[in-house]
Design goal:
single chain, mainly beta, 71 residues, four-stranded parallel beta sheet
């Protein structure tokens, strides 16, 4: 299958906004008591190069390098 190139390079993934390091992609987790999508501003401030976003969250949270996923 043909691939595609992303307009950025990422060191790794992180699911924790508190420990995210510059160069990582943030993968928000939705739990019973929290929604990782709520930390999108914080992860960009800490140097995230991109974030995954569920499609139902993305219209309200436009930011650079969002990777929109269905769920």
């Amino acid at each position: 299958a043909p691939g595609f190139e992303l307009p950025f390079e990422a060191a790794s993934l992180s699911t924790d906004a508190r420990t995210l390091q510059a160069g990582q992609i943030f993968v928000p987790i939705v739990g019973e008591r929290f929604d990782g999508h709520d930390f999108r501003d914080q992860v960009y401030e800490h140097g995230a190069v991109a974030t995954f976003m569920q499609a139902d969250h993305s219209p309200l949270m436009r930011r650079p390098n969002q990777l929109i996923v269905p769920d």
